[in-house]
Amino acid sequence: MRVLVLGGDGYCGWPTALHLSARGHEVGILDNFARRLWDHELGVETLTPIRPLHDRVALWRELSGRTIPVFAADLTNYAATADALAAFEPDAVVHYAEQRSAPYSMIDREHAVFTQTNNVAGTLNLLFALKELRPDCHLVKLGTMGEYGTPNIDIEEGFIEIEHKGRKDVLPFPKQPGSFYHLSKVHDSHNIMFCCRIWGLRATDLNQGVVYGTMTDELARHPGLVNRFDYDEVFGTALNRFCVQAAIGHPLTVYGRGGQTRGFLDIRDTVRCIELALLNPPRAGEYRVFNQFTERFSIADLAEKVRHAGQKLGLRVEIRHLPNPRVEKEEHYYNAVHTRLLDLGLEPHALSESLLDSLLNIAIEHRDRVRTDVIMPRVDWRSTRNRTRPAAASDGAAGEAPGPLGAARETPGAAIIFK
Amino acid sequence: MRVLVLGGDGYCGWPTALHLSARGHEVGILDNFARRLWDHELGVETLTPIRPLHDRVALWRELSGRTIPVFAADLTNYAATADALAAFEPDAVVHYAEQRSAPYSMIDREHAVFTQTNNVAGTLNLLFALKELRPDCHLVKLGTMGEYGTPNIDIEEGFIEIEHKGRKDVLPFPKQPGSFYHLSKVHDSHNIMFCCRIWGLRATDLNQGVVYGTMTDELARHPGLVNRFDYDEVFGTALNRFCVQAAIGHPLTVYGRGGQTRGFLDIRDTVRCIELALLNPPRAGEYRVFNQFTERFSIADLAEKVRHAGQKLGLRVEIRHLPNPRVEKEEHYYNAVHTRLLDLGLEPHALSESLLDSLLNIAIEHRDRVRTDVIMPRVDWRSTRNRTRPAAASDGAAGEAPGPLGAARETPGAAIIFK
Question: How far apart are CA B267 and CA B229, in angstroms?
């Protein structure tokens, strides 16, 4: 199968591209490298020293004999998007190419508007390009479990049968997203559902939980393939961030009471879920939703697990409850159905002590690269003007964010920079 | 009360501004005149010869002694939006300032992306400006009944209590919008609900039905105050369009079987509903939804009513069922709750023969202004490249839409052009 991975230079996109390539699919990567730009904007770096994409794919070719063409293109540039689809002729596209951080979207007005217009317009362009050029292509879109929020009823996979005043219908599950980023994914979901209905496109919307881990079988083949590992308050997600904090002796930063419960999954399951969705495509016109996570934990649970694992490695791990910078329930009901990927054959990796050990050891290995000034939360949901850049990175401007990088940039077309 | 009407030069905004001004409120208008630009883009004109806004407000001042300052500003320009709020210091804003035509949003990719980014980013800017400058200001946002689509259960006002697997919650009513325009309103609704939750803003989201009529008590005071009356396939809504068609002997254009049922209301009720919402504001942090319509009709019902009324005036009225350019159910269940505005004291104007007579007479009066080449539907939901401009308006370019006008324009600030 010919699969174009949009955002294939990122944390989930890169291991997905290699996994699919290793399994015999013809894989291409489209990326605008915005994620690397945002590291510069925020003054942060992935814990692991990742290589430039052209090095990574060259190394993968040496190791595997398999070529991954790269399209340097931005989805908000329609011509570039269409050029890439026309050139690669994918049977499926896996769409990770969005601004994916909730805190980034909550920095200020510019970042909120950027996140929504970037994600929504990029996805709209993709939908139009698919309809015009590849109408049978399967769109596998990364959504998030955060689209649902935390309702007081069980969360179903995308749709719910509602009986009301003696009548029944199956309707989209009500959404209560918790940031401008999560809202952008809800907007995307509605747009995609509509395009499947009017144009007969086929799409799988994967409402993914919080991903942890950094290693897959393919990445393990060479240190030069190493994946990103974000630990900063803006792009670092809970479990990975806790492991780095434990490794460097920083208190684990639990926001509020820590009863916030979410679905989680190992990145090895992310790449497998994508392939399962690809191998079992929806029919033309079908918009389907899978809840893509394997276990649920509260934030406090996770912190305890990391403390326990850290102590066994001889680390002194403190848990600190901080005032919650987010507006969210800290104790709530949470039960979300996630059977559709299991039905397709997913065999989940449960969160194990050995996984935590391995994460902690990676963090310890790279602990000299950790910048401690980017760990504490600076982005407060209640403020419209948050200061994100560490003091050292600001020169007189009091660390005010200068606006999202890449917002006005339009790449000149879908240049194939490696083939 | 100080009320800023955003989009106050438009079909609903203008009569709303005058109604509120006549009732003793201090009213300002903010508009970017995009609606007038789109007439030029599409080669259409309102049936009624409306005057420029500066003439209209000057005439209103002569007639009423009341001043309506005008802010020439675009909501997608944050500085201009903030300047206007800072200068006018409104207690409430009534937000009509969006691209509001479903067919316009379905012309092609450019119009779809423009509609969503314009409406979503404009409303986001407004939310940030309110939070930063007028956090207690009441936002009255115009949504649409079309956000709900046509579910097989009763439509509630914004929220529905769902009992599921033995648990209960009150959740946002599931949305199934039917165009990129309707989708933009759903996106807005989610964004506004979120900002009320995190920032304590107060908002009323009015899910309005299809508005008909053109006259209110205030507009009737002088011909120079006349409101727009759109009959073209892009901006003309069903009942008004049918009346013009009847007046000029054009068959009434019923799309498909005509069983499509929607909520409708008289424009005199629109302006009254706005005032009722303003006089009964939500509490801080509250996001509430009113379904703003008074009666429901199927499209075939409406066509029959216009035929009947037309025949009594001696017109020969033919009804023509066209292949439906939209993707929508043509026979379906439709029952939507609309009690909250009635509870606040709305006394609805039912659709009467005298109203139809008056609309038909206005259409007859201006029938020499009708362009028959803009009536038949050209915008097909199934196509991504629709030809909208009448042949005469195109010069060699085969009538291809050149992209939405106003998309890249940024007004230089909130110039007060009349005070």
Answer: 11
